[in-house]
Amino acid sequence: MAETKIKEAKEPLFGKKERKLLVDPLLDNNPITIQVLGVCSALAVTSLLMPSLVMTIAVVFVCAFSNLLTSLLRNIIPNEVRLIAQLIIIATLVTIVELSLKYFDYPTYKELSVYIGLIITNCIVMGRLEAFAMGNKPWKSFLDGLGNGVGYGIILLVVAFFRELFGKGTLFGAQILPEGYFANNLMVMPAAAMFILAVFIWIQRSRNKELIDIS
Amino acid sequence: MSTTKIYLFVGIMTVVVATLLTGLRNLTAGQAEINEKVFNKRAILKSLADGLDGDLDVMTDEEVQAVFNDNVQQYVVKLNGSVVEDMVAEDIKMKKEVKKADGDRNLPLFVYSNPTSGKTYYITAVRGKGLWDEIWGSIALEEDFKTIAGVSFDHAAETPGLGAEIKDNAAWVSQFTGKSIYNDAGEFVSILVRKGGAIPGNPHQVDAITGATITGDGVTKMLEKGLVQYEPYFATLRASN
Fold first, then answer.
1. Do A76 and B20 count as a contact with CB atoms less than 8 A apart?
2. Does residue A116 belong to any structural domain of this protein?
């Protein structure tokens, strides 16, 4: 885990450290493949690209803004009830996502409804609040949340890409593989996400030996 | 940290959050309700398959509403064949109706007239149990009240790639089109989702989905129990024709 220690000095709005906060979780400290958090929803929603994309947007939104809000409130949140306060912040944002989906895209809401609610229990979100936002300034926390949300989303989309392509022969619902392609039903099952994740982790760690046994 | 401050913090936070979310909900509720209705209308029209005048996938929400206003007549019928006057079919919640006693049950019926072909279709609603939770669907019958024009199914929690195929797999769904729920002797036989594959040429069977035996059996039971309920009303229609 990289709880970057940030000095309380005057720093540029988007300096080296800020960049690191944003970029690190995308690959070298990815919440799913390195920290192995949030795997549950990564298995559940990735059989098609479209719901994965909506889920990604939802998690990026919740992760970034819950980090921002928690960081803004970090000095007035009583330590005794900090987990409850964090949960309320996350639950509020998730409810906002749910209401907006119902308003803008009802079919996707129907498809994802259970999993949207489960963002509340996504370890990535709460993990970042506890590990980062409670001890860092708002702007940095926002970037950290953004980075982790996008890092989660990248994996979701990569997994969904392979699962939809080989499981259905389509991408975003459009036929890609020729008509005669015999769909591989295994890819549609949640277990397939586990295989793809494992291959991703394997490739990632064989390219960067430093990542081995880091967690 | 004093206890008072903790209470104060939690109190203020709760009030702020509750106000915010209630406000947002009230703001979005109207449109959300319309969205839900259109979603249900699409599911009903989907059962028509090729019987529908137009392509449902490219229809806008307004066009779906228009089809319902112009070409669909809604009826609520009872198991004894009588029509309930003061109810609207699309407001019927099948989830509640299937739990009612036979005499109290209200059944929604949507009668669609295709403006191009002039054909009439009778769309019935069925609901039953799959493997994990409830499954439901719309079954469109042709003017003879026997031949299936098409079906559409949905489910609460069937397994993606297995039981959920009753909704997602268009090829499986299309098997129902042209099948008959009555045999040559005029007896109600429904449709059997047959494990191991439908016997070729049998007009009352469709293939099961590999690995989804219980969901398939659920569909069989749902059709058997659901479709026969409309028979008394169809009998009155047949008599009046």
1. no
2. yes
Domain span including residue B88: 38-240
pLDDT tens for A64-113 read: 999 999 999 999 999 889 999 999 999 999 999 999 999 998 988 888 77
Lowest mean pLDDT among A12-21, B76-85, B135-144: A12-21
DSSP string, B2-35: -HHHHHHHHHHHHHHHHHHHHHHHHHHHHHHHHH
Structural domains in chain A (count): 1
Q: Is residue B201 part of a domain?
A: yes
In a domain, B65, yes or no: yes
From B149's Cα to the closest Cα of chain A, the distance in A is: 24
Contact A54, A119 (CB under 8 A): no
Structure tokens at A52: 């994965």
The pTM for the full model equals 0.80
Domain that holds residue A102: 35-206
Look at residue B6 and tell me if it is in a domain: no
Q: Which of the residues in chain A have pLDDT under 50?
A: 1-2, 7-8
Which residues of chain B make contact with A101, given a CB cutoff of 8 A? none
Residue B14 touches partner A, C-beta closer than 8 Å? yes
For residue B16, what are the contacts with CB-CB under 8 A and spacing of at least 6?
none
Q: ipTM of this model?
A: 0.77
